[in-house]
Inverse folding.
């Protein structure tokens, strides 16, 4: 595959694979000039329909994979957090450069208006931005509200500027209770809701449980919007247990309320059961407390959506993160055991914890971690 056209100073024809590699190097070298030049070169110029199609391809097949690679390299501890931040900032500039390059050839929007927003607390704006730009390229009139939009302001926006659909993005599953509240609030405006992003689970299973439509990517979103989404029945504030009946057992509420105490006790139990922790520095102790805080947060989220797999997946992800940083993943076992013990009276919580513990394969003491 080639980009076709050439521009001054650029090689005759770069394949997408060449471009991906060059973009990656530019991101890692903090070279935003080169990164922007590359994506502008890839978009090219000429026939408006072609430019719009190529711009979409650059967004989804160059910039998005580069950003995913940032995540993989960070998780494997091969790049620093500073490099991850720099690469993301450059990629954001690249998205703007693609949008700017395509803008002159785009006429007025020919389709309806959609609002694209991240749920409150969600910092991962780039996925939503990619969706917004692809929809613009496909003729939609897009109100893009960016990261962490407080639900009340999202609702005010929908009242001020009625939309054919509201597109909610979330990348981190721990935002699911907030996402559910946002979906329920959007229903009260009668606006069709389309959710997307990694938080909503495999095949959007949590979005569906929360009565929202779901699409895996920007192109899927366009297809669903073209087909027309159902307008929700405008009902008054909808209580979460109408969609998630298991919430009536109160386990989610009670475990969430005792989160601080759970984290404290778990930290103490891990210190008892995992002797290397006794010689941890202050910083290492803080990190461990953060990790335990995340574990309890994901347990609470799994209780919210009643899905043990959500928690098991998170624990497996944590094993990878710890392992890559030289922290023995077996330190997770006493944490899970402590929580199992403390939450003995909560059958759903212990079921979720036991499933994760059963699936956890970590090298034992004496074996390489
Ligand atoms: C960049 C980044 C950040 C940046 C975000 C900056 C920004 N402006 O976006 C910063 C540094 C802020 C950040 C923070 C955090 N991050 Co982060 N981050 C990433 C990273 C590397 C890239 C995200 C991205 O842009 N992906 C690229 C896009 C293209 O992929 P995508 O999400 O799949 O999006 C596509 C589809 O999902 C879909 N889609 C997305 N939204 C929508 C919406 C609709 C309506 C539709 C239809 C479709 C759709 O279309 C998109 C385009 O094709 C990911 C790694 C990764 N693989 O994604 C981690 C990642 C998401 N982050 C992670 C974590 C842990 C965090 C933090 C908790 C870290 C910390 N300890 O503080 C915080 C949480 C902050 C918060 N409260 O939200 C983890 C999450 C793991 C998990 N357990 O879920 C990941 C997966 C990293 C990893 N490899 O482990 N992060």
């Amino acid at each position: 595959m080639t980009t076709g056209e050439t521009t001054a100073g650029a090689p005759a024809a770069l394949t997408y694979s060449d471009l991906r590699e060059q973009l990656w190097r530019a991101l890692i070298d903090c070279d935003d000039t080169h990164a922007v030049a590359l994506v502008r070169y890839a978009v090219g110029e000429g026939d408006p329909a072609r430019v719009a199609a190529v711009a979409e391809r650059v967004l989804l097949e160059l910039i998005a994979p580069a950003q995913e690679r940032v995540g993989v390299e960070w998780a494997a501890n091969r790049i620093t957090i500073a490099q991850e931040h720099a690469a993301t900032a450059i990629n954001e500039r690249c998205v703007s450069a693609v949008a700017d390059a395509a803008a002159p050839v785009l006429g007025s929007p020919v389709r309806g208006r959609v609002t694209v927003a991240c749920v409150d607390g969600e910092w991962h704006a780039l996925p939503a931005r990619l969706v917004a730009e692809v929809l613009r390229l496909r003729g939609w009139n897009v109100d893009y509200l960016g990261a962490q939009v407080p639900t009340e302001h999202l609702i005010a926006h929908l009242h001020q500027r009625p939309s054919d659909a509201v597109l909610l993005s979330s990348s981190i599953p721990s935002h699911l209770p907030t996402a559910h509240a946002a979906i329920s609030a959007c229903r009260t405006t009668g606006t069709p809701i389309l959710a997307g992003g990694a938080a909503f689970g495999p095949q959007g299973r949590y979005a569906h449980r929360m009565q929202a439509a779901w699409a895996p990517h920007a192109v899927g979103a366009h297809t669903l919007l073209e087909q027309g989404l159902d307008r929700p029945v405008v009902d008054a504030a909808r209580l979460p247990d109408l969609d998630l009946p298991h919430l009536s057992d109160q386990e989610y509420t009670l475990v969430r309320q005792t989160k601080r105490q759970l984290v404290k006790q778990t930290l103490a139990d891990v210190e008892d059961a995992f002797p290397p922790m006794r010689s941890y520095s202050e910083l290492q102790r803080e990190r461990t407390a953060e990790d335990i805080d995340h574990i309890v947060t994901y347990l609470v989220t799994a209780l919210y959506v009643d899905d043990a797999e959500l928690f098991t997946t998170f624990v497996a992800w944590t094993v990878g993160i710890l392992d890559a940083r030289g922290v023995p993943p077996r330190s997770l076992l006493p944490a899970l055991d402590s929580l199992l013990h403390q939450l003995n009276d909560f059958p759903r919580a212990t079921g979720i914890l036991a499933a994760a513990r059963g699936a956890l394969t970590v090298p034992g003491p004496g074996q390489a971690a």
Strands lie at 113-118, 141-146, 165-169, 193-196, 213-214. The first strand starts at residue 113 and ends at 118. The pocket of cobalamin is lined by residues 60, 64, 67-68, 70-71, 74-75, 85, 88, 121-128, 130-131, 167-169, 171-173, 194-198, 215, 217-218, 221, 314, 317 (CB under 6 Å). The domain at 9-107 is CATH 1.10.1240.10 (Methyltransferase, Methionine Synthase (B12-binding Domains); Chain A, domain 1).
